[in-house]
Amino acid sequence: YSLDNDKVVLRGCVLRNTQWCYGVVIFAGKDTKLMQNSGKTKFKRTSIDRLLNFIIIGIVFFLLSMCLFCMIACGIWETITGRYFQVYLPWDTLVPSEPLGGATVIALLVFFSYAIVLNTVVPISLYVRYVGDVTIS
């Protein structure tokens, strides 16, 4: 019997409804084309994708720096001026009553508030594209 492409069973195939068969191993080992192509695929990114990723990372750092600036400004304001407004609007029970500790806790809470308010700085279409690139590569 001659061997041709119709009689070759590729790696990973299963024979069913057969009690027995003869087999010949051809092209075995790591150097075969099938084994060389069976590894993890590399995602090819264009220069525009790399540029967009760099821009998105820059926008996220800009957002974090704005939140950090607003947090520091809020902490300074709460320490200097804001404690006098406790007569009209007292701090929550979670916040310590001393001026410096209370201002620190409020400033930390304000950081997350500003992160929620200013998250529209990052365009959602670029954010989805960046996350898609990260999961693929």
TrEMBL record:
Locate the transmembrane regions by residue number: 51-80, 100-122
Q: Which domain of life is it from?
A: Eukaryota
InterPro entries, sorted: ATPase_P-typ_TM_dom_sf
Instruction: Supply the alphabetized keyword list.
Output: Membrane, Transmembrane, Transmembrane helix
Matching entries from PANTHER family are given as: PHOSPHOLIPID-TRANSPORTING ATPASE (PTHR24092:SF190), PROBABLE PHOSPHOLIPID-TRANSPORTING ATPASE (PTHR24092)
Q: What is this protein called?
A: Phospholipid-transporting ATPase ID
Q: Which organism is it from?
A: Timema podura
Question: Highest lineage ranks of the organism?
Answer: Eukaryota, Metazoa, Ecdysozoa, Arthropoda, Hexapoda
